[in-house]
Write a sequence for this structure.
């Protein structure tokens, strides 16, 4: 058994995960990040202690964090979702608990979950890309999780793909997540509607990615244009990643992945267009399997991967 915590901007979810990757007990608290670091820290301790009451012999607690970690994986350097900068979460938890605490970026946690029990099970060279409000990534090379010199190795959402009509939250222009996230899909359709293009989307008061995906499936011209544009940039990004590290498989997760093969086929077609060696070095592109519990399952399995950089 293992304890995994998925610390998100909306909810803190913790669970006991068995060796088959099943979440046996789950506890949830609302994050309410406006309360500040100390309040969330105390909630984390309470939630972990609740789980320890059920399984008292646990020696490690794994936590997935929506942010950038320091080189020793002890400090959260920056988490825009939680409004945290330079907080020593590992140390602050370890003085309150008898367990060892391991921290990891949440996209990396999802990647570990998929590698341990899901779509990229036991793959030696695999990339996971999560398409949500932003875009996250996790990379496994030679069965090891890659986090880089500064912990930002798989920030694929901020690879610059070309100029775009709005700036990324990170301050740059042209990041992948401004072309290919759920947010990007909505921004693009809003922009085109303002230009006066005719579309069934015009009747919606507030657009979201699900509406756009569903309308694209139903054949709406603008929705299709937006999804094709998203797939094109993902295809470009995947081919670039393949040029660099050549994964055998890509798992696509996050909120947009619900669109299933409709989206995946478009990403596969776009990727084929940009691959340098489409005749013999074509990666598989599949859907992630573990959905909402991936963060908990990955966090509970951190100790099986080398994640400490120093
Ligand atoms: Zn960016």
């Amino acid at each position: 058994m293992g304890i995994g915590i998925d610390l998100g901007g909306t909810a803190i979810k913790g669970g006991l995960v068995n060796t088959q990757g099943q979440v046996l007990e789950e506890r949830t608290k609302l994050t309410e990040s406006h309360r500040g670091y100390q309040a969330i820290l105390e909630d984390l301790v309470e939630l972990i202690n609740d789980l320890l009451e059920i399984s008292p012999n646990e020696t490690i607690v794994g936590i997935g964090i929506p942010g950038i970690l320091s080189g020793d994986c002890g400090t959260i350097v920056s988490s825009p979702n939680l409004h945290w900068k330079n907080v020593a979460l590992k140390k602050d938890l370890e003085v309150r608990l008898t367990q060892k605490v391991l921290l990891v970026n949440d996209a990396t946690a999802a990647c570990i979950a998929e590698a341990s029990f899901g779509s990229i099970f036991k793959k030696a060279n695999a990339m996971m890309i999560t398409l949500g409000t932003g875009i996250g990534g996790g990379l496994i090379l030679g069965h090891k999780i890659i986090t880089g010199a500064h912990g930002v190795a798989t920030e694929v959402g901020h690879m610059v793909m070309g100029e775009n009509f709005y700036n990324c939250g990170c301050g740059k222009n042209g990041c992948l997540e401004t072309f290919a996230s759920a947010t990007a899909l909505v921004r693009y359709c809003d922009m085109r509607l303002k230009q006066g293009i005719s579309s069934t989307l015009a009747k919606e008061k507030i657009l979201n990615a699900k509406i756009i995906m569903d309308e694209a499936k139903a054949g709406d011209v603008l929705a299709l244009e937006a999804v094709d544009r998203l797939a094109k940039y993902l295809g470009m990004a995947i081919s670039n990643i393949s040029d660099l590290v050549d994964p055998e498989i890509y798992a696509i997760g996050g909120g947009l992945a619900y669109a299933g093969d409709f989206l995946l086929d478009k990403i596969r077609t776009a990727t084929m267009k940009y691959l340098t060696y489409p005749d013999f070095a074509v990666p598989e592109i599949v859907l992630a399997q573990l959905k909402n519990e991936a963060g908990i399952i990955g966090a509970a399995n951190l100790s099986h991967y080398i994640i400490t950089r120093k």
Remarks:
- The first strand starts at residue 2 and ends at 7.
- The chain has two domains: 2-106+293-304, 121-288.
- The mean pLDDT is 94.
- The pocket of zinc ion is lined by residues 158, 168, 170, 172, 175 (CB under 6 Å).
